[in-house]
Design a protein that fits this description.
556 residues, TIM Barrel, 2 domains, 15 strands, 10% strand
């Protein structure tokens, strides 16, 4: 027997006898309470030892429940009492506090110096100029729309990323869209479709078409051109985004737990209410690169010429280059590509998919930017970066690596009041944001929270322009990858862009040797199939570049 099992038998036998005798001989509130306590302890302990499914309960009756109780509050205990300002994941307290302060329009400065280790490996920083400048007024928006687009759209540098009605509550969706209207940015619907709550306040919308085709599917789940056209031609819909994959769970369809599916959501999505809604891993309209591009043309035609793009998390580089080949062969290009990073968030994802798949956002954006340059396509296609953006530096880093604009999701949720409790997949969100529980979601005040979304966007964008100006630039489009500095393990700084050999315009199309893996990847790429074997063996870029440089040195 364990000590707690022995203790149980002592209480169940001797303890109950003593309590009964005291209750009979000295009847009082105290003796009655003691008797109830020993009987309750004995009842719970007996159930634990002989009927519980948990080994801990059988070996440690009654007290094992204390362990489960404390474990249920582990995240909160760690967040409030243990973790320092810079060590939590995915967003530390410093990042969360910055979002809250900017959302509330209160002081967002710090005192007494940085808490960051400036010599930490991979620490990112910038070099400022002695001649700071102001960003030009006409450089504060980004034009979306390639050569085949009839209705171009001028977007903000920072926008609200994809979050579906279903994943988020109706009040949260309303607050985000009204905030987008006030801030002058767009609001991506997420793959759940353009719900009435996305449309109610007339903020600019990017309608995402996921692999489940929610919002434009027939009763059998196939694409419905009529329902798509009816929604896509609305003035509020500014752009349409085809979702191929998501950074938080690439290779896996979107997941909406059954606990969060209401009658309304089931009706909007045309899905069953009694089981998890798991979208297909592959968009049925985009099974090959050329199928995807033909779908782009179809959506552009049905939407009367609005910007059409697609979203993906970069995995095997060969497969994206296959897409570039398909664009060259067909002459069809999307208006934009959204590059989602592996560090991106989601309401529900398998741990292995979220932790181990895909390129991070900066890597993916830099690769995509160079691939499009090398294929001679960059001037026709905008790049949107998506993945963990809290500060204006996060925004600047993504723009510098090649993005034209940036989407943020979790920090927009924080501007609504999200506290990173990580209960998004349980329907038990304590702030009423990521839940369909009406008692919880009604706590989100749409008008008040929309102001906070506007404030966070405004203050972050203003800080971004000021940061760009501190580098001596008057236009964010002048940012370049090498301006971003990374701390090496040797304690020195190096330009981030130097880690991978950049490509020149049309370099992939020219019959000459290309340094690094680009040549192998390009020759392996196919325009008729996404899949390609991952056979290229990557080696440290700095080693190969050092070898290349040393081979050019002439002996004295």
């Amino acid at each position: 027997m364990t000590i707690m099992q022995k203790f149980f038998w002592i209480i169940a036998s001797l303890g109950n006898l003593v309590a009964i005798n005291l209750a009979i001989s000295q009847t009082s509130i105290g003796t009655i309470f003691l008797l109830l306590l020993t009987i309750t302890y004995s009842t719970i302990g007996y159930f634990d030892m002989y009927h519980s499914k948990h080994t801990l309960n059988r070996l440690y009756p009654v007290v094992a429940h204390i362990r489960y109780f404390l474990e249920s509050y582990r995240v909160e205990i760690q967040q409030y009492f243990i973790a320092n300002d810079t060590e939590e994941k995915p967003f530390n307290r410093e990042q969360r506090s910055l979002v809250y302060q900017r959302a509330k329009n209160v002081r967002d400065t710090i005192a007494f110096g940085t808490q960051r280790d400036l010599l930490e490996d991979n620490y990112l920083s910038l070099w400022q100029s002695l001649h700071p400048r102001a960003v030009q007024a006409d450089a504060k928006r980004v034009r979306f729309g390639g050569p085949d687009c009839l209705q171009p759209y001028d977007a903000s540098y920072l926008n609200i990323s994809a979050m579906s009605f279903g994943s988020l509550s109706s009040n949260a969706i309303e607050a985000l869209n009204l905030g987008a209207l006030k801030a002058g940015c767009y609001h991506n619907t997420g793959e759940g479709g353009a719900s009435p709550y996305h449309l109610k306040h007339h903020g600019d919308i990017v309608w995402q078409i996921g692999s489940g085709l929610f919002g434009c599917r027939d009763e059998e789940g196939n694409f419905n051109p009529e329902s798509f056209a009816a929604m896509a031609t609305r003035p509020q819909i500014k752009m349409i985004e085809i979702k191929l994959s998501q950074g938080a769970k690439p290779g896996h369809g979107g997941v909406l737990p059954a606990a969060k599916i209401t009658d309304e959501i089931a009706t909007i999505r045309h899905i069953a209410k009694d089981k998890d809604c798991v979208s297909p891993a592959v968009n049925p309209e985009c099974t090959t690169p050329k199928d995807l591009l033909n779908f782009v043309v179809k959506l552009r035609t049905l939407s009367e010429g609005k910007p059409i793009g697609f979203k993906l998390c970069i995995g095997n580089p060969v497969e994206f280059l296959g897409l570039c080949k398909a664009m060259l062969e067909t002459g069809i290009t999307p208006d934009f590509i959204t590059v989602d990073g592996a560090e991106g968030g989601t309401g529900a994802a398998p741990v292995e998919f979220s932790n181990r798949l895909g390129m991070m956002c900066l890597e993916g954006v830099y690769f995509t930017h160079n691939a499009l340059i090398g294929a001679g396509l960059r001037d026709k296609i905008n790049i949107i970066a998506s993945g963990k953006t809290a500060s204006s530096f996060d925004l600047l880093a993504k723009i510098a690596m090649g993005a034209d604009s940036v989407n943020a999701a979790r920090t927009m949720m924080m501007s609504l009041g999200c506290i990173q409790s990580r209960h998004c997949n349980t329907n038990m969100c304590p702030t009423g944001i990521a839940t369909q529980d009406p008692a919880r979601s009604k706590a989100v005040n749409v008008i008040e929270k929309s102001e906070r979304v506007k404030n966070y966007h405004h203050n972050t964008i203003e800080s971004f322009f000021e940061l760009v100006g501190s580098m001596g630039l008057d236009n964010p489009a002048k940012l370049l990858p090498h301006m971003l500095k990374k701390r090496t393990p040797y304690g020195l700084l190096m330009s981030v862009g130097s880690l991978i050999e950049p490509l020149k315009e049309n370099e992939l199309l020219q019959e000459k040797h290309i340094e690094g893996p680009w040549s192998d990847w390009w020759h392996m790429a196919r325009s008729d199939d996404f899949y390609s074997e991952d056979t290229y063996i990557l080696s440290p870029a700095e080693f190969s570049r050092a070898k290349h440089s040393s081979s050019k040195l002439k002996p004295r």
